[in-house]
Amino acid sequence: MTESWESDLSVSEKEALDQLKARMSADMIQELHNDTYHIYLFLKDNNFDVNEAETMLTQTLKWRKKVNADAIESFDPPEIVKIYTKNNRIGFDKKGGIVHYLPLGKLDVKGITMSAKYPDLEKTLVKELEEDIRILKEKRKSPNGPFSDVVLIFDMEGLSFANATDKKGLEYLIRVLRITQNYYPCLIRSVYIINSKFSFDSNLLFCFFVYEVSKFYKVCSNEKETTVICKEILITIF
């Protein structure tokens, strides 16, 4: 049965979707194999290039097996990481997307990088992303229908120059952000950077790798802009 959203696809997009579904093997994750909209996102993220979408899908499934993503719910993050991930999922925006608030400016970068290994940070992010997808899929109107996406608010208040330029911390952050780019197509809709006090050059460096996982980002440099943005996107509090 064709979902209503599929009727809005162009002929070429529908053909690409049919081709990608035909290439999917039966041993792929059953939930994904039967989820037409989720498969569609791999195509959308690759401009409906079937070969590129298939490559991304194959790499994603291999990576999921490597990190044991299907059983990630049982993973217990290090205590120092829990401090910053607890209650960061604050509500839904006007489009039904999940809003995350992340106080990056107050991160104990050296403490985290000294106390937690990269695989722990990777699994922590995967656990958060998998929970996002679970929540979004539960909210959709039909089993194979569209589900919304995620909005990130990065609060830079309290960010020191030392943390902003910490090489290992930046490397960790870039690596975990690229996970969303490489394995979670179209999940991050937008990123808002609030309470930014650094120079334009520093913001540009941060925005450069934020752009890799989001089609849209906005830097809010004052309280008025931050208040307006928060009122615009947030309508339902968890």
Automatic annotation (TrEMBL):
Q: Show where the CRAL-TRIO domain sits.
A: 77-218
Q: Which Pfam families match?
A: CRAL_TRIO (PF00650)
Q: Which GO terms describe its cellular component?
A: cytoplasm
Under the heading Gene3D superfamilies, the entry gives: CRAL-TRIO lipid binding domain
Q: What is this protein called?
A: SEC14-like protein 4
What is the species listed in this Swiss-Prot or TrEMBL entry? Araneus ventricosus
